[in-house]
Amino acid sequence: MGQVNVRIASLSSAGEERFDYIVVGAGSAGCALAGRLAEAACSVLLLEAGPPDRSPWIHIPAGMTRLYTHPGFNWRFESEPVDALEGRTLYQPRGKVLGGTSSINGTVYMRGTPSDYDEWRQKGCEGWDWDSVLPYFKRAENQARGPDAWHGGDGPLPVSDAPGQPVIARAAVEAAVEIGFPRNRDFNGPDQEGAGFYQFTASGRRRWSAARAYLGRGRTRPAIRTNVLVERILFEGRRAIGVTYRDRGGLRTARAQGEAVLSGGTFGSPQVLQLSGIGPGNELRRHGIEVVCDLPAVGANLHDHFNTYLTFRTRAPGTLNELANHRWRLFRAMVRYAVLGNGPLANTGVCAGAFVRSDPRLERPDLQINVILWSAAERSIEGVRPHPFNAFMLSPVHLRPDGRGSVRVRSADPRQPPEIRFEFLVSEYDRSAILHGMRLCRRMAAAPSLAPLVQEEVLPGPEIRDDEALLADVRRRAIANYHPVGTCRMGLGRDSVVDSRLRVHGIAGLRVADASIMPQIVAGNTNAPSIMIGEKAAAMLLQDARREGSGRG
Fold first, then answer.
1. Percentage of the chain exceeding pLDDT 90
2. Is residue 151 annotated as a catalytic residue, yes or no?
3. N or C: which end of the chain has fewer CB within 10 A?
């Protein structure tokens, strides 16, 4: 992209570090953004609250289960009680480590549909239609199948097929075809609808997080500070000039001679904005926070995919329950992984699925059926307890829910987790879509290819049949799908937080670049779109710096 007004990181007379850019948060978007800026010879400071990504469990795909509630690498957020879900709180794992959630997630590579991004453009987000974002998806991607009109071949992020096709996953894909779904080899190609195997952000035997892709060996790296907590943004008037952050040595200040960018994620970015005085004015004053910019949309528009799961006891081998319940099998799997780089530890257990419409009148899929090669008797902030028997799950995910919640600070203390409020099952459409997904899962389980592998339906159980009973089961067990978005919504006017160039409304020198800027969630996993946002944000920052430089000339 060329060089732009390069300045070397320096110390001011007050001992403050100075950089061209400061990026707060080393997650999917933050790593891509900071890495690309550093490659353009800018001085960049990347701040991350968690530790470096040195744990071997981060790099082993199936290590995801070890990190699901690990306090050393996970924020372990929990929502407020959700009325529609019998007042249950929802556990929200978020990566607190270099690479963010891309270091602890299921590694599924999914972009959503082209129409998702065209809809962003229709909502006033100029430059975010499909034709405009596709080059940044391709720029990021190193597609194992080779480049084509839809995929990139020389980007830093490997995208590959799973090493092997477990018998249950293969049978589930065939079952989906048997009940009428088209076969789909590429969910990130011209058509998302159908059944098939997923691709992953992995290479060989290893997970490939955004940190590994953009900050790895041999790459130009930003200055990276881990285990630091950003407390607030610094301003001169209504211009952001830097941040204060706390490390083991105390409170420190870093100044941005160019701009500061928040990439703290859907929960973290609105929290830092509000702690810094940008957000709903009355709410901030209630916590004793001085208002810099009264921006009501900060923290609003929280939404996520919504899912439940059907559990089936199975006769087939290959589930992660086998490893969790039998130490000898786990040992053999570890040896196989170390020697051959394959076997159950080489994938996260979410390796296949289908995209379908809950109503044939819809123009695009609104349900994702995940095939999951493990099952849990309990999932909570306390950890995952697998069933003591061999089982798998079919999980219907509603991709386009109507409900909208919020993220708010609890106090002026940056160490306090934010208040997370979800709204689910708010419309008849929300309810009917998830019920349709449950019935599709049962049809798959009864289809000729999968039925021989099913011993019994464990959850919700064969006695749960009519809509009323199924909906009651959803209220008891369904969860948010760990793809939260929207709390720093991109758009026009007071119902948004950033403009189409990701600049915070009413504030100079400050942008947001992560999943929080999505005005509407995409139909699929959100890691790849977040990396795309980081790529596009870097390009915009460099373009704007060139314009300003030529203007000064």
1. 82
2. no
3. C
